[in-house]
Structure formats: C-alpha cells, structure tokens
Amino acid sequence: MKSDPGGAAIPLDDGSGRILGYQWTGELAAALDAVDAELTAAMSGTHRPVVHTCTTLLPENVLEKAGYLARLPSLPVYAVPHAVDDRALGDSRWVLNPSVCFQTLGTVAARSAIGELSTFTARGICHRAEGGPIDDPLRLASFTMREVVFVGGAAQVRAESVASFGRLTDLVGRTVAGATVEDATDVFYGDDQQSMRRLQKALAVKREIIVPWGPGTFVSVASWNDHRQRLTDAFGVRRDDGDEDCRSACVAFGLERIAIVLLAGRSGRAPVEFLRELVSRSRVDPHPTNAPSR
Q1: Do the domain assignments include residue 208?
Q2: Assuming Cys at both sites, which of 77, 193, 221, 265 could form a disulfide with 127, CB separation 3.0 to 4.6 Å?
Q3: CATH of the domain at 270
C-alpha cells in the first residue's frame, strides 16, 4: 500500500458548513479498503468470524430493543418515505443504521448457533446526529464502521475481545507516534448523561485508542466495548448449550478516521495536514476553461 496514494477526499456538507461525510476517489478509495482488510485481519487473529453485511435502513424497534431510544438524548436519524401516507407504514418507522453491532446481535447472532465463543464481523455505513462544532471535519453524520463482535461466555468474550483490541492497538502504535489507550464513555449517551458516563468509567466497559491529530489535539480512532448482557438479553441471543451466561463485546473503528491517521503516519505527516491536502485535491478543476488547445 502506498503511504500517499493518489485521489482525493471530497467533503459533502449540508449547505451550512457541517460535513456529513466524505467521498473518496482514485487510489485513496482502494487504500481505505486495504486499511480495512489489514485491521480486520489483526482484530480477528486466529478466529474466522462469520462475515455479514449491513442494511442502511432499520425498523425503529431495533433501537428500542437495544435501549437506544430510551436512554440517549442524541436523536436517531429517521428516514421518511417521500409522499407516502403514514398509514402505508402502519406502526413501523424507519431509521438509518447508527451502529454495526445492533445488526450483528439483533439479526445475525440471534439466528446463529452460539457456543462458548462465536465471532462475527461486518462493515457498514453508520449515521449519527451527535452535534458538536459545525466545522468539525471528523464528527461525521455518515461514516464507515468496522466491527468484530464476540458472543458467548463471559470469560471467553472478555479475554478474546481484549486480545483483539490489543492486536489493533499494537498495529496502530507501530505506525502512529504517541498513540495511547484510555478508559472512555460512549458519546451515544450525550453530554448531559454525566451519571451514565461515571458509571461506564467505573465499570471499565469501554476503552479507546487515542492518537495525535494536530498540535495539541487528539482523536479516538478505535474502541473496545463490553456490552455485558445488555444486548444479548435485549435481542434474545442465547447459547445452544442452555447456559444462561451469554454476553457480547465488540472491537470497532471508524474507517475514515483510522485510515487517515495510518496513511498520514506512514507518510510522516500530521493527520490534520494530510486530510487538508486530500480535501484540497478535490478542489482542482479537472476541466479548466483556460486549458491550452491541442
């Protein structure tokens, strides 16, 4: 993989300056796929996870089962069919997928044979409305997420998910100077959920890889998340042997962030400058009006 592939990052904004996401062109698009494959292999280790795809749309009741709607002040992104009478949908409402693990546990794992340890992986486009500065180039409303999800007994799930996160941490650390790991809380819970954030830190259920972005600024590029029995209970995921100890955890990264960080590290530049350069390439007019005639 080239440390500085050709191509550009085209920011798509909503007209107010808020970046919804990026479109990646040329060799850069292929480089993101290569980063994804490299990191997924490291996260999977000797496991051979069940691979599945994700849908963009979800019925609202998937988020209800996960507790997303009841506990989170962050609003989900709803999809409203154009010019369709509400009665056509009945009691169903549609939302855009906010996280890969909801689909892993809500559909695939719930229909799979679960032993002491089962693993799954998927890559999907996720959609979130988390707020933050309007010109934040990284807090995207639409981004690509990769997850490896571990399901089974408590000891096996914790040991293997922690080992997976360790392999990912080592890979990032070999490329990016100053990468660290910190206990964290989930931004899903919003800024006003301080009690939930304190509880999460006390239980040590989330850790993040933090890397330098620019002078004095740092960003999270990957996380380990211990769901305990919250999602397996919510979605009715059970072990085939009848053991009631069925838990889950995941290791996840946002592809856009971690790819920019790794490619920048391999080219010896700060990620903030590297992304600016990729965006600047998208502003070059491919058909200049003053081009010389042949």
Answers
A1: yes
A2: 77
A3: 3.30.930.10
Which residues of the chain register pLDDT less than 70? 1-3, 71-74, 82-91, 131-132, 134, 186-204, 284-294
- Give the tens place of pLDDT for each residue, 52-101: 999 999 999 999 898 888 765 557 899 887 655 555 556 678 999 999 99
8-state DSSP, 282:
T
pTM listed for this prediction: 0.88
Position 288 in a domain? no
Residue 90, classified by CB atoms within 10 Å of its CB into exposed (0-12), middle (13-18) or buried (19+), is exposed
Tracing tokens 């979605």 back to the chain, one arrives at 235
- Report if residue 2 sits inside a domain: no
Give the gyration radius of the chain's Cα atoms. 20
Whether 1 is covered by a domain: the verdict is: no
Which tokens sit at 99?
A: 């996280």
Residue 90 · residue 42 · CB < 8 Å:
no
Domain that holds residue 208: 9-281
Residues in the chain: 294
